Automatic annotation (TrEMBL):
Name of this protein: Nitric oxide sensor HnoX
Species annotation: Ferrimonas pelagia
Annotated coiled-coil segments of the chain: none
Gene3D superfamilies: H-NOX domain
Gene: hnoX
Domain Heme NO-binding as annotated: residue spans: 2-161
Pfam families hit by this protein: HNOB (PF07700)
Length: 179
């Protein structure tokens, strides 16, 4: 995983829970990198799992809730950092439909080792969208948070139903409905 995912996570922990919690989870997790991340570095996704588990233990908040919080915050940060022109998309659905071609394609060009998740669309309508998230990392809760962040960006109220399609969580079905 790219280091930006780690640096943004630790920034979120700092701002939400305090630097003392950040230091505590780094000590508790004992990650291979020692917790010294650079935005462009490459790190195993297992380190993120260790950090999230350590955070959940430290703050007594369920892992699922923390991953969704992180995903929601990460959306706005990635838009800002990468200067994504969000005006070219008219809605959360419009953005999500273009993630593969506009965002993930650029990520693969910029970072030769990057393996972003894949989104496949099973249903596309004005009020309802059904998509499948696929990633060897199994971070469906982060994807859920990212979708929430996207909806918030466009000021949309979406009801999101998430269903794991396998035990490892590497394939997840999302049903999005506009309210």
């Amino acid at each position: 995983m790219k280091g930006i995912i780690f640096t943004e996570f630790l920034d979120l922990v700092d701002s939400t829970f305090g630097i003392e919690v950040t230091e505590a989870i780094l000590e508790r997790a004992q990650v291979a990198s020692g917790g010294a991340y650079t935005q462009v570095g490459d790190y195993g996704h297992g380190e993120m799992v260790q950090l999230v588990v350590a955070l959940a233990e430290e703050v007594k908040v369920p892992i699922e809730q923390l991953l969704m919080l992180y995903g929601k915050a990460l959306f706005a940060r990635l838009v800002a950092i990468h200067k994504v022109d969000m005006s070219q998309y008219n809605s959360a659905f419009g953005f999500l439909l273009r993630v593969e071609d506009d965002i993930h394609r650029q990520v693969r060009k910029l970072y030769d080792k990057a393996t972003p998740p894949t989104f496949l669309f099973d249903e596309i309508g004005e009020q309802r969208m059904v998509l499948r998230y696929m990633s060897h990392r199994g971070f469906g809760a982060v994807a859920h948070g990212l979708i929430l962040g996207c909806a918030a960006y466009y000021g949309e109220d979406l009801v999101i139903e998430r269903t794991a399609l396998n035990e490892s969580g590497t394939e997840v079905r999302f049903v999005l409905e506009r309210q």
